[in-house]
Specification:
single chain; mainly beta; Thrombin, subunit H
């Protein structure tokens, strides 16, 4: 995994970067779900563009509503003890959004272990 503290100037929403923390260019699959949405598609998939301690920028299937709570699930690139796959699960509010990406300010997060799929020989 290639990690740097390089910051994109305006990858989503067209505004300049005003973050107080660094973001890291992590590219992983993300699943998202808008909590209690009645007018928008409630869930979708995308790719993370960058992640920091205060937020996450990711691609979306459609524009997400501003200030709505979103639950995110990201397959984390690092493994626990080098062997156990992890999942980053976060909840936060949409602070920027356009037709194909959104930025979420993280309010709560945790790491969970992911189930490993095993192949079994058929009898």
């Amino acid at each position: 995994m290639n990690i740097s503290t390089e910051v994109d100037s305006a990858p989503c929403g067209g505004s300049l970067d005003r973050r107080g923390t660094s973001r890291f260019p992590v590219r992983e699959d993300v699943r998202y779900r808008v909590v209690q949405s009645k007018t928008h598609k409630e869930s979708g998939t995308g790719t993370t563009l960058n992640i920091g301690s205060g937020g996450i920028l990711f691609t979306t299937e459609e524009k997400l509503p501003l200030d709505r709570v979103v639950e995110l699930s990201v397959n984390w690139p690092a493994r626990l003890d080098g062997t156990c796959p992890l999942q980053f699960v976060a909840t936060g509010r949409v602070v920027r959004s356009d037709e194909n990406c959104a930025a979420v300010r993280i309010e709560r997060y945790e790491f969970r272990t992911r189930a490993v799929k095993t192949l079994t020989a058929s009898s």
